[in-house]
Amino acid sequence: MAKLEIVNVLGEKVSTTEISDAIFAIEPHNQAMFDTVLSERSALRQGTHKTKTRTEVSGGGRKPWRQKGTGRARQGSIRSPQWRGGGIVFGPTPQKNYEIKVNKKVRKLAMKSGWSSKVKEGKLILVEDINFQKPATQDFLKMLNNIKANERKVLLVLNGDEKEYNTFLSARNLENVLPVFVEEILLDDLLNANVIVTTEDALKNVEGKLS
Questions:
Q1: What's the rounded Cα separation, in Å, for the pair 92 and 95?
Q2: What is the rounded distance in angstroms from the CA atom of residue 78 to the CA atom of residue 84?
């Protein structure tokens, strides 16, 4: 089993921990990751787009000219699709389903691949204890500087305990930091982060869910 260093909020090494090779040291499966990210992005779509058909556009109740004798093509309404301002044919409706199904095993393989790629690149930082007594964004920034995690995009993974709530509040106002709980991790956010900051407990929680 591979080992990772654990540092404190001052950036000093305090201990090491073992991580499972079956989860954090596999060969990344690109197709599984692609399918999972595509599924996650599709699930985020609201699907509230809507265009009006000829029956929903106001006006156009009267026939614009008589059927025969004008030399022009027959028309029944100025709200027909071929008219400017008319209804839209085959436009988007809220009934469209953007869901892309991904099997549980594939999704789990994708998450393992995402974590393994970050560990391989050395972009995972374990912090011994990042619990704050009160929300303090400046203190959180100091911690990021101490552990050399002041990257452009930081993913902060928390265990979801009540004692970590102040840590969550301290990080959420920072533009380059995305705080998430273990239950809410998206592969897209995981791959998009330049560095991942988490605790040993949170990482063990992730390991338990993916084992």
A1: 8
A2: 8
